[in-house]
Amino acid sequence: MATALNTKEYCANDNEKSFFDILKDCLSKDFLFYAGYKNNFDSNSGDIDFIVLHPSYGLWIIEQKSFRLDNLIEVGNTDKWLVKRGIREVEERNPYKQANDNSNYIKGILGKNTNLTNNEGNYKGKLKFPINHFVVFDEMPEKDLIKANNIYSEKMTLAKDFIYNKQKDESDWENKFKSLRIHSFLCKLSNNDIEEIKKTLGISRAIVNPNLKEIGVTDVRQENLIKDNFNQHLLIEGPAGSGKTIIIVLRAIEIKIKNPEWNVGIFVLTKFMANYIRTLLSAYKQSLGDIDIKVYDIFEFANSNCIEKPDYDKFKKLNNKDYFIPALLSAIQSGIKDDSKLDAIL
Description:
single chain; six-stranded mixed sheet; alpha/beta
């Protein structure tokens, strides 16, 4: 099962959602993919149906079309195709040229990151890995594509008959993707390379637990909050379910990776939330190793790590209905034990 970096809700239509499920189920675990990519910070960015990545094979840009043979009126090696949409005849971009343009666009973005380019040799300044592209025709078998004015190219097309052949297993799909490459390479992308690609494209990532069930997804705006450097305190506000907890957990990991000598702590109000965040952090141990990030509920921290413990009775006797807060503040103001001091607090 492949690793989806976002959800099928990013797909534009039901056909793309179906193909999303097929990619997830039919590709092996080494494949990563992202649906419905658009660079929201670039007005020249078009929609890219799918981006697929494999550490040994590089990256593919996929354009998906759900044409049938009787939809195609005038097609060929031209910029525009004339196709039938319902009762109307409309011009649409040649999907092969669209896939090629999208491939060049992504290549341009990634090529600006020197961590992803060769530093020496004949390929100095070029990407370390290839970017390939192809078109998915999920409603047209190979024989129909061959009929359609010779547009079919085996190295540039994934046809319906392969997609829905239930006899095909993960190895068949892997070999098919390997064949859908104009360029190949002999190296292998490291985990750091893959993270650099995701960071440069600003694509989201999924947090998974040990059972590989998705428990959180970040979008591009959230990813920027996680990755960006801030020279001041940051307050993140949002309603329930908006991703605040995910941002805090991933930002803590980001800070710890960049500053391994730092003591990083996450503070919450309840033991339940503290245990939940510890569960999220433990999910990352499989890929990143043991990440030493301390998680406290504020009451636990005050009782164990402040020089003076909170004196709740004292403030309760002062007829203060909200006596918890002044008691906590008083304890914190008394000072923190030396072995409990933190370099970053979230």
